[in-house]
């Protein structure tokens, strides 16, 4: 069966999109985070504020504290996305591990890390994902864990596939894992994506390229670590995460 | 030591089977007599409702404590699935996905010591989440004083009837909500 996609409202080719990305990036400095409005990422156009954010430098701000999670919130099996169904999921089994710290390098202890992802074919277990790639009955693609006393997290999963999206003609997302992290304060909250080293789609992806500084983009790419690979079992990746934003304790020290 | 933060990326459109959890909007213990409801719509810059936003709320307990409490996501010991809250603990943390009409509602208790709930917005199209506050009382504080008078109203929840507050979030355009930067 030939798959015929509906025409895109914005028929920009990849070459035109790459040029647009390069033009926007040329006008930016080395910011750590992506700008909230990044025109090449079409969905951002109507969904980001145009007024400047209002700074809050109040040491009494409630946001300098944050929610707590514990053993009742997570099971030991939640970190293994290959064990949620009766059979083995399809794909390349991987482990992903790393440390979560704050900007001062202090470990983020016993906080929640959530991971969600597409399956090995590049399809999400979500009703609205209509990419005509097979769903895997043995893979949902959601895991959780708590960091340990050194701030370490660890997941066993499968490597997700690249998938198309309708940002422009022939738009494909590089393989990625979505991560959600809690720090010791609400201000340290982070939702981000982890990428796999050497993916040829990096240069063509407006979501990754929304991080305009090359060094900052590199921090979203995990390292393959052969020492983490398990013989006859899985390939290992290491990805450390640094949470931004002040916390109640940091606030004292910064000022 | 000063480390460089990991960049933010969008939550995307497909978090729905992962992040929302049963009872995520039920922050108040079951049947609590002081329960309040905060609800509203999220709109984009064209005034259209945003059907795929994820909101998180955070607040002190009624006694003013800010430590939170584990137990937001109680799980079934047999299946491992999240089955909801324990029904008695006030954790201060809410997580609510907007509906197809861009509507959300959170049932909670009045925050102790401050007049506001902290609100965090994630959505497809937002490369970096947004912070705002839903003030339940127009009590002067450091933030409200710092906001230009003509924009202050975007932070004030309107009490529609006793215990029910309306708080709309406009991501862009006329009446754009005041969003916050904590540095
Ligand atoms: Fe994705």
From TrEMBL, chain A:
GO biological process entries: 3,4-dihydroxybenzoate catabolic process
InterPro entries per the UniProt record, alphabetical: Intradiol_dOase_C (IPR000627), Intradiol_dOase_core (IPR015889), Intradiol_RC_Dioxygenase (IPR050770), PCDO_beta_N (IPR024756), Protocat_dOase_b (IPR012785)
Domain Intradiol ring-cleavage dioxygenases: 96-124
This protein's UniProt keywords: Dioxygenase, Oxidoreductase
One Pfam family named in its UniProt record: PCDO_beta_N
Region Disordered: start-end pairs: 27-49
Keyword Manganese tagged: no
GO molecular function terms noted in the UniProt entry: ferric iron binding; protocatechuate 3,4-dioxygenase activity
Keyword Oxidoreductase: yes
Family statement: Belongs to the intradiol ring-cleavage dioxygenase family.
Identification of the protein by name: Protocatechuate 3,4-dioxygenase beta subunit
Phylogenetic classification of the source organism: Bacteria, Bacillati, Actinomycetota, Actinomycetes, Kitasatosporales
UniProtKB/TrEMBL annotation, chain B:
Family recorded in the similarity comment: Belongs to the intradiol ring-cleavage dioxygenase family.
Ranges in a coiled coil: none
Gene Ontology MF, one: protocatechuate 3,4-dioxygenase activity
Keywords assigned: Dioxygenase, Oxidoreductase
PANTHER family listed in its UniProt record: DIOXYGENASE, PUTATIVE (AFU_ORTHOLOGUE AFUA_2G02910)-RELATED, PROTOCATECHUATE 3,4-DIOXYGENASE ALPHA CHAIN
Family matches, as SUPFAM superfamilies: Aromatic compound dioxygenase
Domain of life: Bacteria
Positions of the UniProt region annotated as Disordered: 59-78
Domain Intradiol ring-cleavage dioxygenases intervals: 35-115
Keyword Nucleotidyltransferase: no
Protein name: Protocatechuate 3,4-dioxygenase alpha subunit
Pfam families, A to Z: Dioxygenase_C
